[in-house]
Design brief:
Elements (H helix, E strand, L loop, with lengths): L2 H14 L9 E2 L6 E2 L12 H13 L38 H9 L4 E2 L10 H5 L6 E4 L6 E5 L5 H11 L3 E2 L9 E3 L4 E4 L4 E5 L8 E3 L14
Parallel strand pairs: 2-3
Antiparallel strand pairs: 1-2, 4-5, 6-10, 7-8, 8-9, 9-10
Helix pairs in contact: 1-2
């Protein structure tokens, strides 16, 4: 595609957006995802910004990530009883994650995230930094296991990489693929419709940039 044509498509998408996102939001480099402060109301998938992203997707096509990444389709994120999920987030999330923020991000949102570094404001690091072995991260809605980390590295390496990007960052071998899918625009979701984050590949492979509030659930049947 020539540069003028590329510019024209971007202008078209911008025009269809009707109004730009609030200044409280900033684009995540290399993705259609957008960062939102925890106190800012997340936009739903029907927002003008979401419509402009759909326009761009129709011109530039969807991505297909190589195995072991498991691809999903838009039907996973169809409207259900509670946003894109059947149930709201659990009442007592781990690591002191904020329930209201979690519910907005998980169930009424497709493109926005907890603010960069939010996970550092919780008890997560102090709870896991000295832990031996793996930590299982559960869906904040259903309690199903979604990620297990660290795998293929130690906890210090996992925390360092996550800290350098601003969100918990998982690799292919740390994903529970029975319960997680990637959509064509890079959105990472649970099979039950929970928005998790985005796949932002780098030079070493897929990197799943995930909201802590989306994976702070307690195992099924163990909610306090």
């Amino acid at each position: 595609m020539t540069r003028p044509a590329h510019r024209s498509l971007l202008l078209l998408a911008s025009a269809l957006s009707a109004a730009p996102p609030s200044a409280a939001f900033a684009p995540i480099r290399g993705s259609g995802a957008v960062i939102a402060s925890a106190s800012t109301r997340a936009h739903s998938s029907t927002s003008p910004f979401s419509r402009s992203m759909s326009v761009l997707d129709s011109f530039f096509g969807k991505k297909e990530y190589a195995a072991p990444c498991v691809m999903g389709d838009e039907t996973i994120m169809s409207q259900k009883a509670h946003g894109t999920s059947e149930t709201p987030v659990q009442k007592d999330l781990r690591w002191n994650c904020d329930n209201a923020t979690a519910d907005r991000i998980c169930n009424f949102n497709r493109h926005y995230a907890e603010h960069a570094g939010y996970w550092l404001s919780t008890s997560f690091v102090s709870d896991v930094k000295d832990q031996k072995g793996e930590v299982t991260f559960y869906d904040s809605n259903t309690g199903k296991p979604l990620f297990v980390a660290p795998r293929g590295r130690d906890m210090d390496a996992f925390l360092r990489e996550s800290g350098s990007h601003g969100w918990p960052s998982f690799r292919d071998e740390e994903v529970v693929w029975d319960n997680v899918r990637c959509l064509g625009d890079g959105e990472c979701v649970s099979v039950d419709g929970t928005h998790l984050g985005h796949n932002l590949p780098d030079g070493t492979g897929n990197r799943y940039c995930i909201n802590l509030v989306s994976v702070a659930g307690r195992p099924e049947g163990v909610e306090e």
